[in-house]
Amino acid sequence: MKKEKPYHKNRNPFEETPSYDEWNIYEDYIQKDHIVYDLGAHTGWMSEYFCQIAKHVHAFEPVPHLFDKLKEYTKEFSNITYHQTAVGEDNDPDIRIEGQLGSVKLTDYIEEKGLAFPDFVKVDIEGFESLFFKTVESILEKGKTFFYIEMHTWFPTFKFAKEGGFDWNNLKKYPYTLKKFRWEDPHRIWDEAEILNRDQDFNPKINETFTYLLIPNNI
């Protein structure tokens, strides 16, 4: 039987840029039995795709009007669970993220809600990835979860290590291969991936736009 190709209700992202980009990463690394966490699901464009190529999707989006659009956009899928919450450094009901009050620590939230362990995590949370990544040590230690992390260090919310953000050199102690893809808005033409070695500085520089792909070594 011929395998059906995933569809896109609006535009086809695979036809928008001539370079290898995030959609090719999802296509290459997400498997049909995977549990995908979409952190920063926005209006559901990527969750729509994840639902078609993975076993189940957990979509996190804190902004009310975006959350409503996310649910509407993906309503035909039965393999998606919605979470109207931000992920951050702490379980903090008073912190303001993307204009909304409150955040959860992902590992605590997984345990509290009894969620399946993630195989692939897409992180696009408007600069807060530098704080969020301080909380996922227990996931990184297992070395079994792919991480796609979109980084814009010029966001006001981004914190460098010296400002209390995650020290990305800490990734060196976990069983992962780290690929760095540089690209620029608005055309999003990606450079060829650079595989970082342990002698290099993993911390980003000021005014960088790039993606980190963490590939687990234990699978």
What is the secondary structure topology, with strand pairs?
Blueprint: H1 22-29, E1 35-39, H2 45-53, E2 56-60, H3 64-73, E3 80-83, E4 92-97, E5 100-103, H4 106-113, E6 120-123, H5 129-132, H6 137-142, E7 146-152, E8 176-182, E9 194-196, E10 209-216
Parallel strand pairs: 1-2, 1-6, 2-3, 6-7
Antiparallel strand pairs: 4-5, 7-10, 8-9, 8-10
Explain this structure to me?
The radius of gyration is 17 Å and the shape is globular. It has helices at 22-29, 45-53, 64-73, 106-113, 129-132, 137-142, and strands at 35-39, 56-60, 80-83, 92-97, 100-103, 120-123, 146-152, 176-182, 194-196, 209-216. The strands form two sheets. It has an eight-stranded mixed beta sheet with strand order 3-2-1-6-7-10-8-9, covered by helices on one side. Strands 4-5 form a two-stranded antiparallel ribbon. The chain has one domain (13-216): Rossmann fold (3-Layer(aba) Sandwich). 21% of the residues lie in helices and 24% in strands. It is built from six helices and ten strands; from the N terminus they run αβαβαβββαβααββββ.
Shape: globular
Give the tally of β-strands.
10
Please provide the ordered H/E string of secondary-structure elements.
Answer: HEHEHEEEHEHHEEEE
Helix and strand content put the structural class at alpha/beta
**CATH topology description:** Rossmann fold
